[in-house]
Amino acid sequence: MKGSSTSGSRIARKFQSSSTQDEEMSLNIIGTVFKLKSSATIKDLKTMLCNKYGFPENHLEFFLAGQPLLDFQRVVDCGFLECAVDLVFKNIVGMKLFVKLPSSTIEIEGKAEDTIQKVKAMIQAKEKIQPDQYTLVYDGKFLEEDMTLASLRMKNESTLHIIFNPRDVMSVFVKTPGGKIVEFEVKVLYTVSDVKQIVESFIGCSVVHYSLFYEGNELQDFKTLAFYNIKENSTLEVKPSGIQIFVKTWSGKTITLDVTRSNTVREVKEKIFCKVRVPVIRQRIVFSGKRLEDKCSLASYNIQKQSTLYMV
């Protein structure tokens, strides 16, 4: 028999009971077995639930056939043995929770009775992250899926942290410098540098002067895929790293150029022409006392970010 909710936001949960004569009763409530004397009252049972799960006592109510059971009534007299009784959470107020991912923080709405499993389902609905890919941490503790927010004494605007499980493997697609798209298996805690090494082992040439890009953004080598919230079947691209260099012209003016270390000296001269209109054929470029050859790359001369070249 099922009671009906009468006010607020209520969630009914059925439980069964068994008795060993008049001495002791065993009640299965929300998956936990509670043992209590047959003389125990409804208030005693509420207190046990509050101590176990952290629910506020004034938010709990028991119903039998739609009628509330009163605190002073004995459990054994209330029909627990003969039929189903509803445990109702009444007037539960929602709480705002923040979930901190490596690259962002999201907001979800929870209730005191929600389990961590339900919280993970909310995160999945928002971020498409599979629940088995991470563990939630609160107050320095790893959270089990059957824990409730109330049992953790969680308050409004608490912050949960996502820790990705390093053993988890996912597939990503990487567009190589040659334009080929290749599927690789990686782990969410691999760094960008790790992924570049995997690509290098596949294409057989160094990618030290290349960067990894995701959705048009350049990724930093020491950060993880999890930090950038890179998910299963994402597409990454390996492209030459962009750097800024300076060129001091004949007139003493210094100009700034955006280049890659794979650019040739000839390509740099063409960029200079676009800036100062000096024909490529008339340009002579020097770096560290050496005249640069048109066919050579900047990397071959160890030209780094913010290096200065000279026109002579």
UniProtKB/TrEMBL annotation:
Pfam family, one: ubiquitin
Signal peptide per UniProt: none
Keyword Transmembrane attributed: no
Swiss-Prot/TrEMBL keywords: Isopeptide bond
Annotated Ubiquitin-like domain residues: 23-80, 95-163, 170-238, 243-312
Species this protein is from: Rosa chinensis (China rose)
Origin: domain of life: Eukaryota
Organism taxonomic ancestry: Eukaryota, Viridiplantae, Streptophyta, Embryophyta, Tracheophyta
The protein, known as: Putative ubiquitin
Keyword check for Transferase: no
CDD domains: Ubl_ubiquitin_like
